[in-house]
Amino acid sequence: MITCMTSAELLSCALLLGRRLLECGAEIYRVEESIERMCLSYGAQSADVYAVPTAIIATIRIDEEEILTQTSRIKQRGTDLDKVAALNGLCRAVCTCPVSYGQFQKDMQQIEARPQYSKQVQYFACGGVAAFFTLLFGGSFTEGLLAFIIGFLLQILVSYTERLYMHALFTNLLGGVWISLAALLGIAVGFGHNYDVVIIGSIMPLVPGLLMTNSIRDMIAGDFMAGISRFSEALLIAAGIAAGAAIPLGMRTLLLGVF
């Protein structure tokens, strides 16, 4: 038996690692495998892990000690692939050379303190993505410029809703309303002629592509509950975007009689 940690400390650290992986957008199989490998490397005779997008349940047994089980509830999820890579690296490191409970906590704090992209960079990146896809779909330069402005302000809106802990459905609903309304107003004042191209390009930053991809990967890996859950979440987000974008278009049709 490895004595770097007690059984309770080991299970707590492993669940912390798994929870942060899941919160940063890691796949279910990666979360379960990381927790299991870490527990086995510290001397656990067995480690059973069950993870879904909203919770992790882990059970370990070390030598003749009684079986321990802990549950971790996942309330916030996002995408931070840099932290996913760092957490993977930490898992590999402690599996190769086990560390104490205190050292593990320090390593986790260092990962949490890693610098992230500033808000300004995120604003310009969202605007750039919107402009790129607008041009890709055949939009003119002025329409691309309009999409950039819409995307820039869209990210500000999304950042504000995140601070309010608003559900993703309502965030994307508001985002869809803003994109469609701003595109119609922009075209009306002379920023091109095709509002549909601007709307499609500006919506792309909201599309849950990674979530959809991970859901399919989970189902291929045999994690059907997690895969179906994530797939349903992606469909719900897409429905919110579509419903939001349809509201200004519907009002335009009712008021002006044109689509």
TrEMBL record:
Q: How does it sit in the membrane?
A: Multi-pass membrane protein
Q: Which GO terms describe its cellular component?
A: plasma membrane
Superkingdom of source: Bacteria
Membrane-spanning residues where?
121-138, 173-191, 197-213, 234-255
Q: Can you give the residue ranges of the Threonine/serine exporter-like N-terminal domain?
A: 14-248
Record-stated family: Belongs to the ThrE exporter (TC 2.A.79) family.
* Protein name (record): Threonine/serine exporter-like N-terminal domain-containing protein
Upper taxonomic lineage:
Bacteria, Bacillati, Bacillota, Clostridia, Eubacteriales
